[in-house]
Amino acid sequence: MNRLYQKLLPYIEKNSAYDTALTLLSWDTETLAPPDAGALTAKAVGILSEEAYHVFVNDEVISLVEQLSTEKEIKTLSDTERSIVRHIKRTYDRLSHIPPEEYREYAEFCATAQQIYCHAKQTGNFSEYAPVLEKMIAYTKRFTAYRAKKGEKIYDLLLEEYEPGFTIKVLDPFFAHLKEELVPLIRKVCRHNDKIDKSYNYRSFPIGKQKKLCNFLAGYIGFDFNRGVISETEHPFTTGLHNHDVRITNHYYKNNLESAIFSVIHEGGHAIYEMGIADTLTQTPAAMITMGMHESQSRFYENLIGRSEAFWAPVYPKLQKMFGTTLSDVSLDQFIHGINKAEPSLIRTEADELTYSLHVMIRYELEKMIFNDECEVSELPKLWNQKYEEYLGVTPQNDTEGILQDIHWAMGSFGYFPSYALGTAIASQIYAFMEKKLPVEDLLRQGKLSEIREFLREHVHQYGSVYDANTLLVRMTGEEFNPDYYIDYLKEKYTRLYQL
Amino acid sequence: MNRLYQKLLPYIEKNSAYDTALTLLSWDTETLAPPDAGALTAKAVGILSEEAYHVFVNDEVISLVEQLSTEKEIKTLSDTERSIVRHIKRTYDRLSHIPPEEYREYAEFCATAQQIYCHAKQTGNFSEYAPVLEKMIAYTKRFTAYRAKKGEKIYDLLLEEYEPGFTIKVLDPFFAHLKEELVPLIRKVCRHNDKIDKSYNYRSFPIGKQKKLCNFLAGYIGFDFNRGVISETEHPFTTGLHNHDVRITNHYYKNNLESAIFSVIHEGGHAIYEMGIADTLTQTPAAMITMGMHESQSRFYENLIGRSEAFWAPVYPKLQKMFGTTLSDVSLDQFIHGINKAEPSLIRTEADELTYSLHVMIRYELEKMIFNDECEVSELPKLWNQKYEEYLGVTPQNDTEGILQDIHWAMGSFGYFPSYALGTAIASQIYAFMEKKLPVEDLLRQGKLSEIREFLREHVHQYGSVYDANTLLVRMTGEEFNPDYYIDYLKEKYTRLYQL
C-alpha cells in the first residue's frame, strides 16, 4: 500500500465512526425519539458534526491528499483508493470554506428543521415552515457560494453533490426531452383510463397482514434480514450504518394495498444496493453512493421488476391467499393493469411510472428558480400549484398535498430530486443490458430473484461510488447515459397495456 | 461564573455529545440493530470511545480542574459546579492511566461481548461465554490496578464507581445484617406459603393487552411520553440521552401477568428519576446518577408503591375489566397477596421483595472472590449453584437459570449489583420519611401519583449526582443510610400478609 495513503487510514476510520453516529442519530430522530427530545439531541448533533468536520479539514489530511493527487502518486493507487482520495478532496473542498462554528450551527439547525417541517405538514401550515425553509436556503446559498468559482452556478454545484456531471446543461435537455415524449403519451393514456378498474386497491387490507406481506416481499427480492431491519415512519426511506446494517422504513394504509408494497420494493432496492457494497469499501467515503445510481436501483426493483407481470405471476396467488375473499375476484391480469394504471396525481411518491418524472421536473424547475434568485419562498406554494396545473392538470387543495409533501428541502437536500428521474432512466438502461445477458423474465417467473440481485451486485453494487454513474454505465454496458431506453420502455409498455 | 469554570464548558458539552452518541449506539444494539451488524458497529464504537476519552484526558482540562480544586476557587463554585468538577476529576483519574489505544480496544470488545453473552444465554452454553468473561475480568482488573493506590482493594474501587462510600467495609456488615434478619423470616413465611394461591398469574394474558396495560401504568405513575419511549427487549432496562429522552424496555410473557407489570413499574421509576433531573444538570457529568440512589427510585416504585394495596385499589378494577373473565374470580385481596407471595427462586429479576436481597448477596460474594483472585472463571457456575442452594435452598438446572441470567458482567459492570440491595433499602428509608410529610396511602387511593412524583423530584431527582447517596439522604431525612427501615418494613409487611 502507498505509504502516504496508509497515513490517511486513521482519518478514514474516524470519519466513518462519526458518520455512523450521526446517521444513527438521524435515523433515531425519524423513527423513535420522543417528541420533546429535539433541541437537546440537536445540540449533540451540532457538536459531533463540528468534530466530524475537523477529521478531513485539517492540514495533515489536505497535505496527504495533495501529495496523493500528483501524477506520480496517483498511478500507484488502486481505483478504490483513488476514489477515496477524490471523495476526501471533495469533502474538504465543500467544508473547508465554511467556518466550523457555522457548520455546527447549521447541523444543529438541520436536526430540528425536520421536526418543524413535519408539524407544518401535519397541520397544512406552510407559514410555519416558511422561515425554516428560508433559513435552509440561505445556509445552502451561503455555504455553496463560499466555494463557487467565478461563473459557477450555485445550483450546478448542488446538483453535482448528488450526481457528478449531471448539471443544468445536461438536465435541461433531459427534462425537455422527457416532456416532449411523455406528455402526449400521458394525454393518450388518460383518454383510455376507464379501461382499467383499480377499485380493488382501496378495499380494506389489515395492516398486520400487509406487514407480513411486505416483509416477505423484501426477503423475496433479496433484502437480508441478518444485515437489515424494517421500521415504520410517515415517509418510507432507507439509511445505513455500513453494509452489515441497512435500514428501511415503510408506511401502511389500511385502504391502500399498493402503497406499502411498492414502498418496500423501492426501499428494498436501495437496501440491496447498500448491502452489496464491497467489504473493502464499506466504512470509507467511497461507500457513499451517487444518488442517481442509488435511485436507479430502487426504481429498477420498484418498476422494471415490481410492476411486471413476470414478477407477480408466482407471487400474486400468495397475495390472494393472504387476503382471502378481498382479492378473490381480482385476476392477475386485472392486478397487473391496476398497478400500472397511469393517472395525473398530486403526490410524487404515489405517482405511477408514467407521470412520475413530471413530478420531479416541477421540483427541478423550482429549485433552479430558488438558486437563481428568481423567486421568494412566500411565492413557492403558488408556483408549485401552477406547475402542477400546467404539467399534470391537477391542483392541490392544500399545501400538505402540495409543496409540503416532500421532506427533502427540510433536510437541506437541494439538487437531490433530479436523481429520481435520472435513476428511473438509468434503471431502464440497465434492464435493457441485463436482458442481453440473463433470461430476466424466466428468472422472475421461476422466482429466482437472487440471480438478478447477484448480477446487479457484480455490475453495480459492489463498486459503491468508486465510479460515477456515467463511468459505471460505460463500464457495464459500453454506452453512456441514454434516456431513450426509458422512453422506449414506457412507450412500449403503455401502448401494450392500454392497447393504444 | 468562575472564569476557569467557564473554560471547562466546551469540554463538558463535548463530553455530553459523545455520551449521547455512545448511549444511542448501545441502545440501538440492544433493541434494534440487525444480527450481523455487530463487528462493524463495534469498530465505530471503539473509535468514538477513544475520541471521547481525550475530551477530559488532556492537559488543559486537568490543569483547569486542578486550579478549580484549590480552596480559593472551590469557594466560588455552586454545589452543582463543584460536583461537575469532581466528576470530571473522577473520570480523569479513572481513564488517564489507561493507554487510549487500550481503551479503544476495550470499548470495541464491550460492544461485541454482550452479543456473545446473549447467544450463550440462549443456548445455555457457559463455555461459549467463559473466554469473554475472563477477558472482561482481566481488562477490569488491569484498568483498575492502573489507578489503585497502595493498599486499595480492586473491588472497593469498582464498588465506588457505582455508589461512592459503599465499600466492602460497609457492605459486609450490611449484607450480614440482612442475612441475619431475613433468613429466619423467609423460613417462617415459606412454611405458610400454601396460604396464598397465585395460580391466576400464569393464565393466558394476550400480549397486546399487556402492552396497553403497561403503557397505562407507566403514564399513571408519571412516565412522560413526550420525553420517553418504551421498547421491547429480552431484559428490561432503562437508558437515557438526556432529561428529554429517556428510554425503557419491557418484556411480555403470555403466561405471566406480573412480569411485565413490575418491570414497567421498576424501569418507570428509573425513567421518572432521569426525566426529573434539573435542566441545568442534564448533559453534564453530574447527570450521571449514582446507582444506589437510582435503584432506590426504581425499587421505590416497584415495591413500596407497586406492591401496596393502596396503589392497586383504584387500578385493579381496570385490570379486571381489561382481561375480562380471566381475572373476574380473583379479588383485589387475592391479587395483593399474589404479587407479594415470597418464595425462594432462581431468577433475581423475578424474585419477590423478601428474597430479592439474597440474590444480590450471592453476586456480591462472587464478585469479591473474583477480584480477590480467590476463584477461576471456570469455577463460577459451580460456586453460583452452591450459593443458591445454601442461601435460598434452590438449585439451577442449567446455567441459563444460573450464572448466565444477568447481563451485567458482559457489560463490564462489576460492583454494580450491591446497588440493587442498597437501593431497595434506601427506598424504605425514603418512604418512611415521605410518610411523615405526605398522606401517601391516601394519595395512592385517590390516584394522585403526581404528588408522589413531585415530592421525589423535589427531594431526589432534580439533584442528579450533585450529592452522593448518603449526603442526599442526610439532606433530605436528617439521617444517614440506615437499613433498619427496610428490615422493619419487610417484617411488618410479611407478618401482616401471612398473619404470622
Distance between the termini of chain A: 60 Å
Calculate the mean pLDDT score of chain A and round it: 96
Stretches of chain A where pLDDT is under 50 for at least 5 consecutive residues are none
As for the number of domains of chain A, it is 2
Which overall shape of chain A is indicated by the principal axes computed on the Cα atoms? globular
Tell me what portion of residues of chain A adopts beta-strand conformation. Answer: under 5%
Question: Would you identify the CATH architecture of the largest domain in chain A?
Answer: Orthogonal Bundle
Helicity of chain A, in percent? 55-70%
Look at the helices and sheets of chain A and give the structural class.
mainly alpha
Strand order of the largest sheet of chain A: 1-3-2
Helix segment count of chain A? 22
CATH level 1 name of the largest domain in chain A? Mainly Alpha
What is the total tally of β strands of chain A? 3
Oligomeric state as shown: homodimer
Biggest interface, CB < 8 A = A-B, 39 and 39 residues
Order of helices and strands of chain A: HHHHHHHHHHEEEHHHHHHHHHHHH
* CATH topology type of the largest domain in chain A: Neurolysin, domain 3
